[in-house]
Amino acid sequence: MAASVRARSLLEVRNLKVALPAHADRPFAVNDISFDIGKSEILCIVGESGSGKSLTAAAIMRLLPRSVSIAGGSIHLDGTDLLALSRTQMRELRGRRISMIFQEPMTALNPLMRVGRQIEEILEAHTDLDQRQRTERVLELMHAVELPEPGQLRHAYPFRLSGGQRQRVMIAMALALDPVLLIADEPTTALDVTTQKQILALIKRIQSRMGMGVLFITHDFGVVAEIADRVGVMQHGHIVEMGPAMELLNAPRHAYTRKLIAAVPRLEPRPTEEGETDDMLRANRLSKTFVTGGGLFMRRRVVRAVRDVELVVHEGQTLGVVGESGSGKSTLGRLLIRLIEADGGEVTFAGKDFLHASSRALRALRPKIQMIFQDPYASLNPRRKVGEIIADGPRAHGAARAEALEQARRLLTLVGLDAGALDRYPHEFSGGQRQRIGIARALALNPRMLIADEPVSALDVSVQAQVLDLLNDIRRRFNLSMLFITHDLRVAAQVSDRIAVMRLGEIVEMGPTADIFLRPRHDYTKELLDSIPGRKWVAPALFAD
Amino acid sequence: MQRLQFIAQRVVKGIVVLLGIIILNFLLIRMAPGDPASVMAGEAGAADEVFMSQLRKEFGLDRPLHEQLAVYVKNVVTLDLGYSYRQQRPVADLLLERVPATLLLTGTAFLLSLVVGVLLGILAASRVGQWSDSLVTVIALFFYATPIFWVGLMGILLFSVTLGWLPSFGMYTVGGKLTGAAFALDVLHHLILPAITLALFHMAVYARMTRASMLEMRDQDFVRTAHAKGLREGRIVRIHVLRNAILPVITMAGVKAGYLIGGSIVVETVFAWPGIGRLAFETVMQRDYNLLLGVFILTSFMVIAVNLITDIIYSFVDPRIELGQ
Amino acid sequence: MPTKRFLTPLALSAMLLLLPGAPADAQQPQRGGTLSSIISPEPPTLMIGISQTTPTAIVAGKIYESLLRYSTDLKPMPGLAKSWEISADGRTYTFRLHENVKWHDGQPFTAEDVVFTATKYLIEVHPRSRPIMQRAESVTAPDRNTVVFQLKEPFAPFIMAWEPSTAPIVPKHIYDGTNYRNNPANQTPIGTGPFKLQEWVRGSHIHLVRNDEYWQPGKPYLDAIYYRVLPDAGARVVAMETGQTHLSAFADIETFEVPRLKALPHLELTTKGYEYLAQMVWLDFNLRNPPMNDRRFRQAVYYAMDRDFIRDRIWFGLGKIATGPIHSSIPHYDANVPKYPLDLKKSEQLLDEMGLKRGADGVRVRVTLDALPYGDIYKRLAEYTKQALARVGIEVTIRTSDVAGWGDRVRNWDYEMTHQVLSQLGHPALGVSRLYITSNIRKGVLFSNVNGYTNPRIDELFGKAAVAVEPAEIQAMYSEIQRILVEDVPVAWLLELEFPTFINKQFRNVITSGIGVRDNFADVHMVRQ
Amino acid sequence: MTGMEGLRDFWQRYRRNKGAIVGLAVLVLVLATALLGPTLFPGNPWDMAGAPFQKPFDPEFPLGTDTLGRDILMGIVHGARVSLLIGFVATFAAVSLGVILGSVAGYYGGLVDDLLMRFTEFFQTIPSFVFAIVLVAIFTPSIASIVAAIAIVSWPPVARLVRGEFLTLRTREFVQASVVLGRSSRHIIFVEILPNAVSPIIVAGSLMVATAILIESSLSFLGLGDPNMMSWGFMIGSARTVLRTAWWMSFFPGLAILLTVLALNLVGEGLNDALNPRLTREGR
């Protein structure tokens, strides 16, 4: 990168402070940070939740939530002091000079307005173009972001579009007036991995073609490796380390950066456990079709969520089920544990017919197969104490209260929590801690098998590593079998003995982890693997300090 | 096509509900002590066996209950609402006579409450925390908590008796021999007090809802997007916030349609407004079975119709709604 | 053959002088003007033959006429009959009809219409008229304008049964041979009265217009009458105050508003015009059940009721304290009967005597009282009764229901105590005896002897009095009836009702008879001011 | 978090809404009147203690007397108990019915849900006040029939609300966890789901008490009140015709209704803010 470009930055942020409201846990969300973005440069700000990275982006746009405010510092865009501008001046700048795209394409578009109109609106606000010219420009923009059939699609409402298409509409809007700076706040987090790849490529392509500066906010080091020129790492409102992307990714200096990078699951398939063991769980021709609507005049909607799935989980082994959203992997997990009743097929668990077990037989089998859920916030009843939650299973199966609580105490220690947690409520714990409580609950019945549905996808990367370690440890210690559902191939590689790849309700490929990763046979598997962000970057072997 | 299907389906559903209402109410009012003959005897201050049995026979009350029900249901299915023996006229005529007055009253009150309520809600939401917001909130709460008849009586006291600006009862100047525009103005003059009385409570409901909904919407992601696009504040409020915020208000308006008819009973009594609401009350008291059932059918039909209209409007406003879902 | 004869002009002019509000220097009435009156509740129909409700009588009284009207002291006055004769044996009644009377549809009115009405129509549909008309052995029309009633036995009250709501004359050419109740003509009433139905907007108003062909030349004076349906009592007061309506009657105006309205310069108050109806309110005991079957209990209740309070605080001075079964305005009233002044001590003494001792909570006995469903004032009467009887240890639970529910309970004898109010219809034999004679204990019939009072002596006296001819003899029998009944207290008579009629002073000659606002208003006229 | 802390936390959030504090104060006053009033003002509110139509602000009858000379202040004090009783009992009945039907519909879904919702729709289609009038008229006006009628016309919104909550909560992972643990439906409905649906039910209930009091007053206005119970609605109903002559007879009970309903609404809003922190109007 030429020094002349650096000499005069596009964006200069100096000593920025963003104050939180009085009753928050700390006074400043963003505390004294400074950075620059050069023309045609992509700066990634990476950090875990609560680090202040999104508020930094919002502060530059001057679109902070009402309760927070800028408490100091300066922001200059091309020499203009943004904080000194009047509201009207700032409004004129937005969309024209700086644009922004957001994380949730689902909610970032007005649901009641056709997408073409939403793009056109920005032209109306900032240009003198007439109706015809605007329409032309809208089509041009939609074409530029590679939306199919712009002529028709512009008349569609957002809910008709896929997540990726919606994000493309957002990008088209952001680029409408050739801004000099694009702020992207986790723009691919809510997208599937294959879509994410396309969007990242699109942003990069447009950025280099138009020579924009980009501030890219993310929590994913894979994405960073994919797109960043330079990287800043944020923690508790501070930028703890900043530097060129490859330098920082491969040789992080600050302890926190090292810890984060160490926690990124390595894309190295785990060796499959030795020896064929007995089947713990076997599914044959398992199917589920959802029918909505119906009735006298209603049009029926039929979704074949799971089609003729065959799979085996061996005793003491982990089967990873990977797939994108809508692939039916979560439905599969729920079918296997009979949270949903299957339409057809067979499930044998520990040699017994599980799918057709009578409710009495099912009750007896329940303790042996337990589940760990995705959302640490939704999986614990907020109205019950942690002790009661963990003791609930044994209590349901007849254990005395004192005994069950005593066991809960032991389990809490096992999952690395203080026994004092027993008398507290879930909301007093962090996401990682809650996930540990969820694991303790599942273990309370001494199961032989666990079904884990995206157990770490809602967690920050450092916490994710700890929980994965815990799961691995427990699995080994109790010789548990596990079905591990995830969309994250890095995670799957790390935990699975064998992997099943799902797509549109079907398992397209299944085999030992190494085979899947190194010798994928199915095209879709190949596409998935190819889409893993930062797949070419091999995280350095580091030990967290 | 899909919309037609949807309407057809809702109509069928509505008919089923109506049939249920007919049967339930038919049985319910027959459980009550007394019948139209005893009411007429009671009012006349004279009666004998001949009189009572003549009336019963004439009203068909001498036949077994299930037979009466079967006859009634059969008639209703052929759109024959029967005959009010008390008033000596077909029920359909009696109802049709009263419908315009009630539609005028409730329709005006509905529009008034919706328009003014939403406007007040917008005003309050756009001035959150300022005195005008507090004022709107306090007024809304006040009307929300005041019995409707009380508002009506106070209105009469102030505007009719003390100030003499507005007539206190009736729908038009009887014997005024007015026609055309003058007649319309006269009706409007009579309409002001009752319509406002009926509207105030609902106005409060909509104002509160609009305010809350606007405040919720303006924190939505797509509003942030609109800001990021550099749109003017006015346009954001009008196009992005308001249109989305109005959706729950529309739903509420549909739900409240039945309450409007309920409220009109009281308002029509206070203002001697010749509508269905008062007829409903009087027919209960008079055990005018056929007429009462007719009132139930009509008012329930009105509620079903309003709900259907609301749903259709909703489906136009909100493209996400798949009709029939 | 001695005859009694009243001549029209004499009677009228004598009456006009007596009437309140009629200016002494009555100017010649002028044509024109529109009267706007309150009507509440809305009448169910205007066919006065099939509905005997007061609102129907008020409105239809302008459309239909009967043979006679009655003065405020209940003397018969000419109606469709210009004169009448009663034979000395009291069995033959001869009515001579006005000539040139036309129905509203232009057809001539004749004696045949009267014969049809009396022999067919009323007997078929009219519960109150039926027993009277059935007393006729024959009804004949010797010529177009004469009708002769030959009674099976003498019945002195027969002459009192000819006002419009008791015996409306209906057109034979429309009703003969049809189903009287379902005749479509009931929607478009055809009468002989001074006003015709123009329009009835249900729920709003009834519009009557002048009958230009009316048989009394030059009358009526008014061009039109509007009856405004005003269901809310508050609205009715406002309407009278602001001059939006000109006339209110019966219970249109709540009693406590009377002093205020009376003071308004544009309104005039009269309580005349209700003499024929002579309504009385009483507390009715179901004599089949203890403790009501014990005379001492009923007397105790009577002693505990402060009837001055009822008159002054509930009716605000309107009305007279009733002394017995017969209203003081109708014939054969006798004030010389035992009295039941407020006397709590005596009341308690009677109850003690019965063995109804006060319990720990001070209650001797509990009874249910069905409140009359005819308006707020009767609710207040029920509330007062509850409080009054609580003082002597009788705990009353009030039960309210609508007309249908109340009527069903009372006529089926399924009550303990209730208030009742009823008209005496100009004569004890028409409106009083029906409540006390054994033969009228008829389950399922309202306004019969519902409380089940039986006394052979009373039965005998009422029976004889009705057919007696000699006035002194008749009076003696009615006096004895009153003494016996008052001693027995089959019901506790509370008040002879007076109703406030408010008239806007622009209108004159509104109340000219004992049937008051139910009369035909042919003489009402407006004065220019 | 202990119960005390929870309560303190709740109070912290509740306290932020100034209107809710005012509402609570008024409501406490009304409740105290209802509980202690008859002790502080012993006597019978039906006693025709003075001359009728006595104007208010008189030392003997501070709020005047009614058409029969009954003390209005006494009536309001004693009526508080009846009006609140009607409000609370009717609400309790409606909420119970709504919760049972709503939770069954929401939890079991499918055909059961469909049937129950059609049933609910049916009750929502009949204009509720008309229906209430018919019920009260038919079963003769008494405190029991009034309460029953109010409950019968009021439960559908609760059923819908509860059903909605159950539909969402049923898919929550902690509920699924309970299924996987082998818990019975009864346990799941009452221990896992219902406590989490309680906040919106409480909020809806507090508003329903207000509505019930208003419905009772409207019924009384039409002459369908219980003549043996001195309620505020009854006082207004019996005084409405005297409005022109004696404003105080309906004004003071009207004011009592207004204040109580207002207080209930404010408290309802405060509860909403405190119980559903997601929806707080903080920063608005």
Description of the structure:
The complex is a heterotetramer of chains A (545), B (325), C (529) and D (284). Chain B is mainly alpha-helical. Helices cover 78% and strands 1% of the residues of chain B. Chain B is globular, with a radius of gyration of 24 Å. Chain C has 529 residues and is an alpha+beta fold. Chain C is built from 15 helices and 21 strands. In chain C, helix 8 packs antiparallel against helix 10 and helix 14 runs antiparallel to helix 15. Chain D has 284 residues and is mostly helical. Chain D has one domain: MetI-like (MetI-like fold, Orthogonal Bundle), CATH 1.10.3720.10. Chain D is built from 10 helices and no strands. In chain D, helix 2 crosses helix 3 and helix 3 runs antiparallel to helix 8. The C terminus of chain D is likely disordered. The chains are: A alpha/beta (545), B mainly alpha (325), C alpha+beta (529), D mainly alpha (284). At the C-D interface, helix 6, helix 9, helix 11 and strand 16 of C face loops of D.
Keywords:
heterotetramer, A: 545 residues, alpha/beta, six-stranded mixed β-sheet, 21 helices, disordered N terminus, C: 529 residues, alpha+beta, four-stranded mixed β-sheet, 15 helices, 21 strands, 19% strand, globular
User: Distance between termini of chain A?
Assistant: 32 Å
Low-confidence stretches of chain C: 1-25
Assign an overall shape of chain A.
globular
Seen as an oligomer or otherwise, the chain set is heterotetramer
Rg of chain C computed from alpha carbons, rounded to a whole number of angstroms: 24 Å
- Counting helices, strands and paired strands, the structural category of chain C is alpha+beta
Residue share in helix of chain C: 25-40%
Describe the structure in brief.
The complex is a heterotetramer of chains A (545), B (325), C (529) and D (284). By secondary structure, chain C is of the alpha+beta class.
Fold blueprint:
The complex is a heterotetramer of chains A (545), B (325), C (529) and D (284).
Chain A: H1 3-7, E1 11-19, E2 28-37, E3 42-47, H2 53-61, E4 69-77, E5 80-81, H3 87-93, E6 98-101, H4 105-108, H5 115-126, H6 131-144, H7 150-153, H8 163-175, E7 181-185, H9 193-210, E8 213-218, H10 221-227, E9 230-235, E10 238-244, H11 245-250, H12 255-263, E11 279-292, E12 301-314, E13 318-322, H13 329-336, E14 344-349, E15 352-353, H14 359-365, E16 369-372, H15 386-396, H16 401-414, H17 431-443, E17 449-453, H18 461-478, E18 481-486, H19 489-495, E19 498-503, E20 506-512, H20 513-518, H21 523-531
Chain B: H1 2-31, H2 36-44, H3 49-59, H4 65-77, E1 83-84, E2 89-90, H5 91-126, H6 131-145, H7 148-162, H8 180-217, H9 221-228, H10 233-271, H11 276-286, H12 289-317
Antiparallel strand pairs in B: 1-2
Chain D: H1 3-15, H2 18-40, H3 72-108, H4 110-125, H5 128-138, H6 143-170, H7 173-180, H8 185-221, H9 232-239, H10 247-275
Helix pairs in contact in D: 1-10, 2-3, 2-10, 3-4, 3-6, 3-8, 3-10, 4-6, 5-6, 6-8, 7-8, 8-9, 8-10, 9-10
